[in-house]
Amino acid sequence: MITDFLSISSTEHWRHQEKLKTDLTLIATMTTNIRFSARCSSLLRSSIVGLSLMALLTNSLAVTSRGQTALPATNQSDAAAQLSVRIMPPDGSAFLVEQLFDIRVEGPPNLSGPVNISLDGRDISKWNNRSHLTGRPLDHPSSRALNGAPAFLSRDWSFPNAGRHTLRATVDGKAARQVSFEIIAWQGTGPKVRNVILLIGDGMGVAHRTAGRVVSRGLTEGRYRNGMLEMDQMQVTGLVTTSSLTAMVTDSAPGASCYATGNKAANHQEGVFPDNSDSETLKRTDPESDAFFDNPKVENISEYLRRARGMNLGLVTTADVTDATPAAFAVHTSNRNASTRIADDYFDRRNQTGLTVLMGGGRQWFEPKGQKKGGRRSTPTNAKVDPARDLVKAFQSAGFAFTDSTKSLQAGSVSRAPRLLGLFAPSTMPTAFDKLGHGAERVNNVPMLDDMARVAISSLSSSSPRGFFLMIEGASIDKQAHAEDADRAIWETIEFDRAVGVAKRFAEQTNSDADPHNDTLVVVTADHETSGFSLIGARNPDPRIPRGSRDVARAYRGFTDYKDGNGDGYPDEVDPPHKLIVGFGAGTDRYEDWISNKLPLPPSVIKDGRVVANPRRDGPEDADPASRNGTLLTGQVENGEVASAASDPDGELITNAVHTSSDIPLTASGPGAMQFVGVQDNTSVFFKMMRSLGGSYQRIYYDGPRNASTRQRRRTKSF
What we know:
By secondary structure, the protein is α/β, with parallel strands linked by helices.
């Protein structure tokens, strides 16, 4: 039979469809009866072949789509319909006991009949456009799909006990599809932490961390004799996979959303599952539309902990506070760029999220629009979205202390304030490189990330008797890696590491004092890797090599020679003779002379519909004559050279380096830290943080397959 399968060519596939279905059933029956043992190694190898063929044939017959199981079609119209039926939550999702989430089913536009949906065999169709928590109709019923497809939406489902459940849906009695999801317990009898501090170095991969260590600590005869970074010196180290619900390569919104909700999200979305009521065109024409706030939601960590424990939330970032990463921990939207609505949600829903500390850039979204360019926006779909709203005054009226400078941040009254709003720039805050005076523009009175972290922890710890969840983001590691600006990205990594040190000092105090109920878990990771950052070697200082020549990128020889006279972690000189040479494996065309950029210019520009190297950065039009001889390095990402790609209505030309799907490092310390050893899916970080809060983590952690044979091995083997 296996020989018959292998002899079928791709062109003959559809003529053999019915036979393949029969064969598929037979293979499934055979592999179900397999027993794994050392004495059946040959049978095991045969089963692997059989299972591989099953996966191949299942995919070719469209039996599965986007992780959802389509039940066998009975006719051609069913087969066409089932390819488009979608159920949210996706197959394989997981939620905590009592965690709220929404259920949505979307049919294909060619069917107009009712959507019928069952949960564990029980019909729940009557809950369409109703809250399962309150039983009442939704204030904002499911928006009609843009393609006119039938849909079902019910909000606020939760389950009191751990277990597995199955959703099955049909449209007009056709196109049956089902998904399963799991409910996970998190409360236990072990030691619990009161606080969790999650530090996210946005875009920070292994190479970014290594570069920060090389530049900040230095190498002597191959050893880091000046010590390691703060984030290197933690109890455990692991790796995290980074893909989103809709793509191998994630963006920051779902990258953070998985930590906030325990579930995958689509690119550009956070705290929600995708639906078919919005579009990419709408994002450009009406970014604040209600259509971006009606998606099926998943209760995030701040909402859950506020509701279950009365905990407080703190968000600190060097980006706009409305940017993707901080927003993922408090907001639900399918458009990460709906900045006016996100800012409004921070204030309007502060009692649901427990938001008490909010610091970063993005002041433009909190001040009235007025006559200035940029800032708050209105939307024709919701008259309550007011571009003239003064959110700074609203926060102050609600008892928040306000700070907008280093000087005011360091005032004792601010650090002791129980509620705090800090907005230090109109948009993204200046980089550490520029704050320390290495750039052409002077930056004054703007705090460093570690200063913000210190004040945030002081405020939260003094006003959170039931504990707090604090997210601290080093946002411009990502933004400067996008810009292919190695020096600024590295300085951002060092600044971020100093904030890690602040968090560690606080945790060391709480975890070693006489109170066993105030412990803190510190987790340091990223949301994805940016730019394919790679460390090539130390610069060749030979004066005979002209500036801009590729020959300065010396391989396999020597060490860097950064000096740090005052011991603050930042080198005294940006461009020492043997400076670190960095490459970008996921970059665009650029000119490069491996000398720091005084101005933060983009690496590429659009010319005649194509992306080309920016001639004003290390190229022939650079303002500095000494920088006009940079080497032209060609990139590896799409640049619009093919007309069809350049004219894609849902695409846009990429003028900087992009994210990659590389695994990212994670380090952790505190009760429950051992959970994070090994390679883990990004959604599991949420559940592991919650297990630390609930005292249900294992002292020695196993995160492998959960099947009968594994359970048997665990019963018979002592760890």
